[in-house]
Design a protein that fits this description.
Number of strands: 2
Radius of gyration: 23 Å
Shape: globular
Number of helices: 9
Order of helices and strands: HHHHHHHEEHH
Largest sheet: 2 strands, antiparallel
C-alpha cells in the first residue's frame, strides 16, 4: 500500500508542462537519500571548522587582491550618451504586492524559520502574518538596513562535480540556505532593481544572465553564430574565457 501510494504521488507530480519542475522531481527520486559527500574527518565539529576556515580565507584573499588593485579607484558606469535617473530609494510595498511575492516563492524550507514555508503560504495563515511581513519588508527598504538576524544562513558544502576528490576543499562550493523572510526582501529589491535597469536600458545587449528571456543557452547560440560568421569569411578567431574565482552570493 505504501509503495502504491508513493507511485501514485510521484506520477501526479510528473503530470506538468513545467520542464524544470519535472527535472527537480526526477532528481529527487534518483538521488533519494544520496546524501552529501564530505571529506573524512575525526569529528563533525572539526570538519565544520575546517570548512569555515577554508571559505573564510578564500574570501579574504579575494578582498586583499581587490584592495591591492586599482579597481576601487574606478567608478563603473554604463557607456551611455544620455543621463540616467539614479535609483535613490526603494518603493514602499503594499500588502497586496508582498502577498504576490510570498506566493511566488518556492516552498523550500529552512530550519532557521519558525514556520514551514508551505504552512506560511497557506491562505489562512498568510492573512494573519502578512501585515507583519509587509512591515519588515518596508522597514528594511526605507532604512536601507538588512537585519543581521536575517543574514544568518545554513551553509552546506557541495561537491562541484561528481567524481571530484572529496578530500580537497577547493572542490566544494558553499550553498547558503537563508530564512524565508530574507528571500522575500531579496525578491522585492531584485524586482525594483531589475525594473530600473530595464526601464532605463542599462542592461548590456549581450548579457545572458539575470535578464528575462536569456540564459546560458542564448549565450552559447550567440557565440556559435559569431564563430560561424567569422569562419565563413575565411578569418581566424580567438576565444578568451575568463573564470572569476569564488563568485559568492
Amino acid at each position: 500500500m505504501i509503495n502504491s501510494s508513493k507511485s501514485s504521488y510521484c506520477q501526479t507530480k510528473l503530470i506538468t508542462e513545467d520542464i524544470k519542475y519535472t527535472f527537480r522531481v526526477i532528481s529527487r527520486l534518483v538521488n533519494y537519500n544520496a546524501g552529501t559527500p564530505l571529506p573524512p574527518a575525526t569529528s563533525d565539529q572539526t570538519l565544520a571548522d575546517d570548512f569555515v576556515q577554508f571559505f573564510y580565507s578564500k574570501v579574504e584573499k579575494i578582498r586583499q587582491g581587490l584592495d591591492a588593485s586599482d579597481l576601487h579607484d574606478n567608478t563603473a558606469s554604463p557607456d551611455l550618451d544620455r543621463s540616467v535617473p539614479n535609483l535613490g530609494s526603494f518603493k514602499i510595498q503594499t500588502q497586496e504586492n508582498v502577498d504576490k511575492v510570498v506566493r511566488s516563492c518556492a516552498n523550500k524550507a529552512c530550519s532557521l524559520d519558525a514556520t514551514p514555508t508551505a504552512l506560511l503560504k497557506n491562505s489562512t495563515v498568510l492573512s494573519v502574518v502578512l501585515p507583519t511581513i509587509t512591515e519588515l519588508v518596508n522597514t528594511s527598504l526605507s532604512t536601507g538596513v538588512f537585519p543581521n538576524e536575517l543574514k544568518r544562513a545554513l551553509v552546506t558544502p557541495r561537491l562541484k562535480k561528481p567524481g571530484f576528490d572529496m578530500r580537497t576543499f577547493s572542490n566544494y562550493r558553499p550553498v547558503s540556505n537563508i530564512p524565508f523572510i530574507s528571500k522575500v526582501i531579496e525578491r522585492v529589491v531584485a524586482q525594483q532593481l531589475n525594473s530600473h535597469l530595464t526601464r532605463n536600458g542599462l542592461h548590456d545587449d549581450l548579457q545572458s544572465a539575470y535578464k528575462t528571456g536569456t540564459s546560458t543557452e542564448t549565450v552559447i547560440l550567440r557565440i556559435k553564430t559569431d564563430v560561424e560568421a567569422v569562419l565563413d569569411e575565411g578569418d581566424a578567431m580567438l576565444l578568451v574565457l575568463l573564470d572569476l574565482s569564488a563568485a559568492f552570493n
